[in-house]
């Protein structure tokens, strides 16, 4: 089975970046949410994107007051940048369609999550039309990120992963896509029940998948050469 991984220090750096991206985003989210006290931020109720709104306002039916919005927005941009660089360094794009598609999905995800941090979903941006880039970025990262996890799981052997981790990655991708479908129904149908829960259901599997893949690559043992002679080889005397 042909590996689709690069080797050497650059590949290890790529794996490290793949792990650090979601960790940086989670850390930024925790810090930003802790600073939101009026009213207190409720992860199961409040929109994730509201953490990045720089001004106090009522947006999409919820009061947003995020004094450390710049921390969350910086976390998203960092996540997007290190994801693109990490996957590009880790995968060998010369080894067929799988690494090429995985890299393209990572680029889409990285650009998407960066757009979420750069363009706020504020009332002002809704009025001037810029919010479309925020929403496009959010939906792009959710769809491409979960498809990335699913394809990575299906490509487990080429990534040097055992069957259990491959199934876990694939399951994360499916779980995230189900969460996205439920989130869209919740929003489009006007139900708007526990928006934060369904939004995180769609997003967190992506982040767990990136972290799992990164740490798996960092702890992966290189293949050991076999002691058996190749077929047709003449044993040395």
Automatic annotation (TrEMBL):
Q: Pfam families this protein is in?
A: DUF998
Question: Sorted alphabetically, which InterPro entries does this protein's record hold?
Answer: DUF998
* Leader peptide range in chain numbering: 1-27
**Where do transmembrane segments lie in this chain?**
70-91, 100-119, 131-156, 168-189, 201-219
Q: Which keywords are on file for this protein?
A: Membrane, Signal, Transmembrane, Transmembrane helix
The protein depicted here goes by the name Putative membrane protein
For this protein's source organism, the top of the classification is:
Bacteria, Bacillati, Actinomycetota, Actinomycetes, Streptosporangiales
């Amino acid at each position: 089975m042909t590996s689709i991984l690069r080797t050497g220090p650059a590949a290890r750096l790529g794996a490290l970046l793949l792990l650090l991206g979601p960790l940086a985003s989670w850390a930024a989210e925790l810090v930003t949410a802790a600073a939101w006290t009026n009213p207190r931020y409720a992860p199961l109720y409040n929109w994730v994107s509201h953490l990045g709104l720089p001004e106090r306002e009522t947006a999409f039916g919820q009061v947003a007051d995020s004094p450390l919005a710049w921390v969350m927005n910086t976390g998203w941009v960092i996540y997007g940048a290190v994801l693109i660089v990490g996957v590009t360094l880790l995968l060998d794009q010369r080894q067929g369609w799988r690494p090429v598609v995985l890299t393209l999905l990572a680029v889409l995800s990285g650009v998407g999550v960066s757009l979420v941090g750069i363009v706020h979903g504020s009332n002002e941006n809704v009025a001037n039309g810029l919010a479309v880039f925020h929403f496009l970025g959010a939906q792009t990262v959710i769809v491409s990120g979960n498809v990335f996890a699913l394809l990575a799981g299906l490509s487990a052997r080429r990534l040097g992963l055992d069957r259990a981790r491959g199934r876990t990655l694939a399951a994360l991708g499916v779980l995230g896509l189900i969460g996205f479908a439920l989130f869209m129904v919740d929003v489009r149908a006007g139900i708007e029940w526990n928006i934060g829960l369904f939004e995180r259901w769609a997003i967190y599997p992506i982040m767990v998948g990136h972290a799992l893949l990164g740490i798996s690559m960092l702890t992966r043992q290189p293949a050991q050469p076999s002691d058996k002679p190749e077929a047709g080889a003449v044993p040395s005397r």
